[in-house]
Amino acid sequence: MNQDQLYIQRVINGENHVFSLLVDKYKHMVFTLALRMVKNREEAEEVSQDTFIRVYNSLDKFKGESKFSTWLYRITYNKSLDCLKKQKRTIDSFSVDGYDDMNFPDMENIINGIERKERKIEIAKVLKELSPDDNTLITLFYYEDLSLAEISEVMGISSNTVKVKLFRSRNRLAVLLKEKLEPEFIQGYGKK
Amino acid sequence: MEKNKEKQFDAFLKKSIKEVELDAPSINFTDDLLKKLEVKQVEKTALVYKPLISKTNWIIICLLMLIVLLVTHMSDFEPTLGWWPSTNMDVSYVFGELPKIVISNTYLYGFVGLAFFLLLQIYFIRSHINKQYITN
User: Fold this and answer.
1) Residue A36 lies in a domain
2) A80 domain residue, yes or no
3) Number of structural domains, chain A?
């Protein structure tokens, strides 16, 4: 039994205050996922609160077949989708066509040209421009190191679809990064 | 060549995405959440539906009814015998002459209809009010 399951068991047994430990452990990731989907801090905060309330009310239904984090991210993803649907906002803002056969940018040249701090800021900016689904995929795969199977559980789609979608999301991210980073690199290179 | 670039880009993303810090919710996030949960808990306990007659009592009542019915049926009980009051009992000396009430069929059907819709209305109003107080 891992630490999360021990906490869950204690909450089920009536130690309600233990739930705050789970909240503190996951609130940043839940909030980030929500924010990258709904793109508004107030709404993301509300989605995160709703997510944890739902989790609290359904703790006894969590069987532990999957990781607690996977289950939690699934609820976050669904709550964010509900929020987007309420406002009739689209989930996929980019057209998929045209990104499939792109060439990946030569990142080595680009990366070397900019400083780490600057790179962090630029990537954060680019992530904001991605669609909700692209953002979820990229965050779960590259930040949380979730497997394709786990992402498929979170998003409620097959592993193969996750693979295809992830490839497209990565392509879109590459296009945006190239647009953002390359001019600066070229500019910086020119000054040397 | 292209595969190499793809792998390189993948490695770059793995490293760079982790460099971007996670967004932080408001400072009072956990406290606000716990307060909300407490309120919900109080609402839940306050709105727990307690029937006037509990399930056990209903079972006891049904069993008693069943026993009474079975006993009267099995023992050929005749209400006209023994202690059962005679239908011809004269009570005029207590109440005087009682007026005879004649109820027409139309009135009876109307009354039954009214009672039926009144009960139906109670059911709908109750479910409507219940829905208003349901908290998830």
Assistant:
1) yes
2) yes
3) 2
Interface mutation vs chain A, best among B13, B43, B134, B135, most A CBs within 10 Å: B13
Q: Give the domain range for residue A174.
A: 107-191
Residues of B in contact with A45 (CB under 8 A): 25-26, 29
* Pair of tokens at residue B23: 């967004």
Predicted-complex ipTM score: 0.75
**Where is the domain boundary, A86, A121, A154?**
A86
**Does some domain include residue A186?**
yes
Per-residue confidence at A184, pLDDT binned at 50, 70, 90? low
CB < 8 Å to A174, chain B: 9
Burial class (CB in 10 A: 0-12, 13-18, 19+), A105: buried
Residue B35 tokens, joined: 């307060």
pLDDT tens column, A41-60:
999 999 999 999 999 988 88
Find chain B residues with C-beta within 8 A of A19's C-beta: 34, 37
Distance (Å, rounded) from C-alpha B55 to C-alpha B102?
41
Whether this model's pTM surpasses 0.80: no
Residues A55/A72, Cβ–Cβ less than 8 Å: yes
